[in-house]
Design brief:
alpha/beta; 8-stranded mixed barrel; 11 helices; 9 strands; globular; binds ligand C2E; binds magnesium ion; EAL domain-containing protein
Length: 270
């Protein structure tokens, strides 16, 4: 009796596992298809200074899955990373963002804007990453001084020497670096001091409850102080209310991104 039940449990588990695996295999196939058929787009979200003026944008990838709904990047980016598709996808993002940047040159209200581009770990660690970025810049004519690559802490901590070399090679050309989701990873202060960063992005998880959770408020203030000490810009992401902005501004924050200032929108809307 017990044995039979056990076997059934295992069979049930297998079935569920198989369903999960099938769903992933199908999503991977759809990702491949969309890479071939130009099924990805970029949205742009404003980044503002402390007087509310737009100073730049972050490019955010959007995927309209074939005969389905939009899938969140937090779902398909990890899969693209695991399967290696992120290399092709990341190259497309970089090129599309650079083309957009160049098209902003022709209008005085957008000609000064910077473009922040998310770079995943696997993409950054490609031996040819530096060459890839430089080629895209050359091909598109984008101004490297207006490009900012957003990296995450986990990416920076692994293989620190190579990371620093890669960053220096790109910084030499004028490209900037932001540390995304700062405070959620494991980077130590010793790392932070060595990395040629330009900006820290306070993760939205600390911004969300910054007015009600004293721990989050303390973390946000610490990051602002750290940025000041290390000579780095600090931008708060996920700012949704004027009260959050005011609190952060009071503690020295000079740059903001979040629904309060604008949601990610298409290039035309932007
Ligand atoms: P991220 O780089 O930290 O981007 C910020 C995320 O917060 C975006 O989600 C944005 O839409 C969302 N957001 C902005 N303001 C607010 C706000 O006020 N409230 C709330 N609740 N959310 C806000 P999205 O577009 O879904 O992207 C999720 C993540 O996917 C990104 O986090 C980034 O890690 C990754 N991602 C997006 N595009 C790319 C890409 O082109 N390449 C790579 N490698 N990763 C990407
Ligand atoms: Mg980002
Ligand atoms: Mg972030
Ligand atoms: Mg994130």
């Amino acid at each position: 009796q017990a044995k039979a039940a056990g076997r059934n449990t295992i069979r049930f588990f297998d079935l569920r596992m198989q369903t999960v695996i099938n769903a992933r295999v199908e999503m991977e196939a759809d990702l491949r298809r969309s890479l071939q058929s130009h099924g990805f787009t970029l949205n742009y979200q404003r980044q503002t200074d402390n007087s509310g003026h737009t100073v730049g944008a972050e490019a955010l990838l959007r995927w309209q899955r074939p005969s389905s709904q939009q899938v969140s990047p937090s779902v398909f980016i990890p899969l693209a990373e695991e399967t290696g598709l992120i290399l092709q996808l990341g190259a497309w993002v970089l090129e599309a963002a650079c083309r957009q940047l160049v098209s902003w040159d022709s209008r005085p209200e957008t000609a000064h804007l910077t473009m922040a581009v998310n770079v995943s770990a696997r993409q950054f660690r490609q031996p040819a990453f530096v060459d890839q970025v430089l080629h895209v810049i050359e091909r598109t004519g984008a101004d490297p001084r207006r490009i900012k690559l957003e990296l995450t802490e986990s990416l920076l901590v692994a293989n620190i020497e190579n990371t620093i070399d890669t960053m220096h090679a790109l910084k030499e050309k004028g490209i900037g670096f932001a540390l995304d989701d700062f405070g959620t990873g494991y980077s130590s202060l010793a790392y932070l001091k060595r990395l040629p960063l330009d900006q820290l992005k306070i993760d939205q998880s600390f911004v969300r409850d910054v007015l009600t959770d004293p721990n989050d408020a303390a973390i946000a203030r610490t990051i602002l102080g750290l940025g000041h000490t290390l000579g780095l810009d600090v931008i708060a992401e996920g700012v949704e209310t004027a009260n959050q902005r005011d609190f952060l501004a009071m503690h020295g924050c000079r740059a903001f991104q979040g629904y309060l200032f604008g949601r990610p929108v298409t290039a035309e809307q932007f």
